[in-house]
Amino acid sequence: MTTTTAPTPPVVSERPEFRLIRAVARKEISEAVKSKWFWLWALAFAGLAAILASSALPGSQVAGFGSFGRTAASLVALAQIIIPLMGLTLGAYSLAGQKESGALRFLLSHPISRTEAFWGTYLGLAAALFATVIGGFGLAGIITASQGGGADALSFVRIAILSWLLAISMLGVGMLISTFTKSGSAAIGVAVFAWLGLAFLGDLGVMGTAVATNMPVSALFLSAVLNPVEAFRLAALTAFSGSLDVLGPAGQYAVDTFADSLDWMLFVVVSAWVALPAAAAWWRFSHGGDV
Amino acid sequence: MITIEGLTKRYGKTAVVRDFDLDIEQGESVALWGPNGAGKTTVVRCILGLVNYEGSITVQGLDARSRGKAVRAGMGYVPQELSFYDDMRVVDLLDYSASLRGIGQERVDEVTETVGLQPHVEKRVRELSGGLKQRLGIASALLPDPPILLLDEPTSNLDAKARDAAIGILEDLRAAGRTLIVTSHHIEEVGMLVDRVVAMEEGKITVECSPSDLAEELGLRAWMHLILSNGSAAKALQVLQGKGFEAKMNSRGVLVEVSAQGKGEAVGALHEAGVDIKDLEVWR
User: Fold this and answer.
1) Which residue from A164, B3, B28, B108 puts its CA 20 to 30 A from B212's CA?
2) Which residue of B lies nearest to A35 if distances are taken between CA atoms?
3) H-state helical runs in A114-152
4) Do B74 and A109 touch (CB under 8 A)?
């Protein structure tokens, strides 16, 4: 052995240290890059985005959208289905999977706090999702631009950023699920149910309730916005079409009520969906729970 | 160095550790021994702050609950089995562990050399045998050159050769002045590593004593088969029986009954009497 006397331990601050958050984030990115699931998602999203971009361009004005608008509308439809599933499953498996395998115990046996471990994991996965989403939109953007449909690049970028915000909002929800479950498979199961609820059933529920109860238009709009996937869709539609007229009375109500601040209001709603579940997951993870 | 007072850990309504008190001095080596479910691993997890608990744990004067990071900075933890990060290369896992401790590459190289992992650093964790995984766990724990090492069942899941190698490394660490806390349910394996055994059952301490006293108390005895040079069996039998050992002749030598820690005494007695031992084996 190298020493003959027991050394004094280093002085360590209990405050969160960015170097530790960065170390965990780096490891998460490196693990994601090596994960077949990550590549499956990335390639599926990029492939579908490329197909949509290629097939949307040849026609011109259809359903009120130009060629760029049709590409963007298709990508929004794709994003609102695939991206929540990506974020939810990735987030749900993160902590629960590590807990199940013993990796979390190993990590937390180091001089690192739960806060640092949580935010490192979150930021690493958020970066991996950024690469996936921007990769898919980037590919679609290149195809659109090469075929002469790149007139509104700024709107395209705004939708890509909104898609990433949707991804990390779902990541936060997934990680919140992860703090309640002990095994990775159970967490994934709950995440898939949450995805069904948010991507499909929530929308159908709002529509059904609206029809059955003659819900006022204002209530219809607000209940739609409470669903992060729907809030994303509305924000994305506003980003490239400038209005929500295509949504009928609820859209008209939103435009009339919020006017120019509509896109900001929707952005704030999506951002709140990013912040609140992640904060709740962090609070649960850092305030107890045995690993 | 480590003081545990009134430690109680409950899962739901079940207390898996109850009113557990323990003082461990610097440089002392202690085994938490007991059957599966006795609560020994839970005690280690409480010290590391991995689980919530009632009572207090102080390590090097620091409260383990409120100064968790500082406490863990002075400890290395070897899990029972590295069954995660399977796709990581050995060197990447050690680099990751080092980055969490603010330790440089030089120390990673030094530790891989110390535990004999250098030829395997490019391998993925999944490609390592149980013994090499155990060395990897020890290497990670040694990175900060910690004064305290917590080892959870360090010899379980290992074959005889890997177990001997792991025990050799741990003996060196003990000799270097490290404070060791070892959990085990095989006292005969870790007995040689520790000064004190804390026997646990259903979450409570039942006995605290030396490994040899515990072995005696448990009646851990074995038959040692001594292969001797021609014509010395009768003399060996006389010497051993004279020293109070239960001994008898067999076709190839002498059988002597010994305690778990008493093999050296029998061999020493024969050596002093000039009896040449060609070989020996232990039958449990």
Assistant:
1) B3
2) B87
3) 114-146
4) no
Q: What is the ipTM of this complex?
A: 0.82
Residue A183 region by backbone torsions, left for phi larger than 0, else alpha for psi between -120 and 50, else beta = beta
Q: How far is CA A51 from CA A75, A140, A224, A275, A283, in A?
A: 10, 8, 29, 33, 41
Least confident of A166-180, A267-281, B74-88, B259-273: B259-273
Paired with B23 in beta bridges are: B3
Q: Are strands B29-33 and B179-184 parallel, antiparallel or unpaired?
A: parallel
pLDDT attached to residue A9: 52
Comparing alpha-carbon positions, the chain A residue that sits nearest to B171 is A1
Give the residue carrying structure tokens 């430690």: B7
A107 pLDDT band, cuts 50/70/90, is: very high
What are the C-alpha distances in Å from B79 to residues A230, A242, B135? Answer: 45, 57, 11
Element (H, E) at B3: strand B2-11
CB contact under 8 Å between B48 and A109, yes or no, is: yes
Percent helix / strand / coil, chain B, rounded to 5:
40, 30, 30
> Over the stretch B221-270, which tens digit does the pLDDT of each residue have?
778 889 888 888 889 999 999 988 889 888 778 999 887 667 888 899 99
B82, two tokens: 């590295």
| Chain A residues lying within 8 Å of B85, measured CB to CB | 103, 106
Residue reference for tokens 């009768």: B234
Could you tell me how far CA A185 lies from the centroid of its own chain? 20
- Residue B16: phi and psi, rounded to 5, are -90, -20
Q: How many residues does chain A have?
A: 291
pLDDT of A57 higher than 70: no
A28-to-A68, A95, A120, B19, B77 alpha-carbon distances in Å: 35, 11, 8, 39, 22
Query: Dihedral (C-alpha) A234, A236, A240, A246: value to the nearest 10 degrees?
Result: -30
Instruction: Using DSSP, state whether B275 is helix, strand or coil.
Output: coil
**For B138-185, how does the pLDDT look when each residue is reduced to its tens digit (9 = 90+)?**
999 999 999 999 999 888 777 777 778 888 888 888 888 999 999 988
pTM: 0.84
Q: Are B254 and B240 in contact (CB under 8 A)?
A: yes
Coil, strand, or helix at residue A222? helix
- In the prediction, which pLDDT does A1 show? 46
Task: Summarize pLDDT for B78-88 with one digit per residue, the tens.
Answer: 998 887 888 89
A110–B100: do the CB atoms touch at under 8 Å?
A: yes
pLDDT at A157 over 90: no
How far CA A29 is from CA of A110, A114, B7, in Å, comes to 20, 19, 39
Rounded Cα–Cα distance for residues B277 and B226 (Å): 7
Chain A residues closer than 8 Å to B41 by CB: none
CB B36 within 8 A of CB B43: no
Closest CA to A133 of A92, A175, A78: A78
In what helix (H) or strand (E) does residue A162 lie, and over which residues does it extend? helix A153-180
Q: How far is B88 from chain A (nearest CA, A)?
A: 8
